[in-house]
Amino acid sequence: MSILQRLRQMDIRKGVVSLATGAGAIYLLYKAIRAGIRCKPPLCSASPICIARKCPRPGERALLGVPTPQASGVGGPKGLAIERERHGRDSGELRRLLTSLECKQDEYAKSMILHSITRCVYLLESEASACTNEDIALVGSMLDDKDNSVKIQALNTLKAFSGIRKFRLKIQEHSIKVLELISTIWDSELHISGLRLLNNLPLPDFVHPQLRRVMPALMEILQSDYILAQVQAVRLLSNLAQKNDLLYDILNCQVHSNFLNLFQSTQPGSLLFEVLVFAERLSEGRSSPHYRAVKWHYNQQSVHEALFGDDSRLADRLLALVIHPEEDVQIQACKVIVSLQCPQDVGVRPSCPPSHSCFNPGE
What SS3 string covers 144-182? Predict the structure, then answer.
């Protein structure tokens, strides 16, 4: 058989295989479309729980591209609430949910309604902006519910509303309550929701006394084994470390003997980066002229002794992190090293003074 004949046979085989493959793909596509047509959404009433289920998470509608039926009044047109808002029409969905929340509901229903309100605040911007401070107060009142799941959903809803500037002052009024929940209830999901809310708000000065009282709880969360809660806790502590009247309270807060394990290279990169930012803020704060003007005394097991004391092994941890696989961790570790070597007011001095440092001259 000649080469030309073999090539022709191969072309025929390729054509047959391609045809079979194409036919198979078309058949599978047909089955998928047919299954999608046959799968009809279940009939649902206009109850609060059903309304909650109809409001997807932020971005779900865009990802799915599937229109969802919306509960509406008698004779009202059906369609996506977000589509109505896009055309300048108020769907009324968010208002219905808030009205339902005012009625007496069981814990599960309240949790579902709050969850749906959170979704709608992110999706229906104009309707969310049209809400009032009374609506914020209603959501805030759910923080007193006996059920933790309701508290968590209320925190998430307040976090969603905190993205709207005009509600921030009203939400700040609940800061002390949020700090109380974080410090008295040991629940990782509640910690995450509460800390995310606090990290999204400028904390006013009147909250500082409460922050001092909950500082040990924040340190305990930081030293827990739940990464998401740890990250949120250390972000809050990093922000508080920039407050002159809170810096000593943080540095003198008692920690576990293995506190420096937070700086081990085996920790997740997201947590490592945040604890390094925290260490840099503390180092800069304690090196500032304002802070050095006072002679401070620290507990033996304090954050200060763990990070900056004579027996601290922070330098070893930092040197190991300089070669960390993640670049942002490397850079942040270098920033901490620089802050430890030179005081913050180095800009007005010709060189760094020969003061105590975690690093030996040879390093």
Answer: HCCCHHHHHHHHHHHHHHCCCHHHHHHHHCCHHHHHHHH
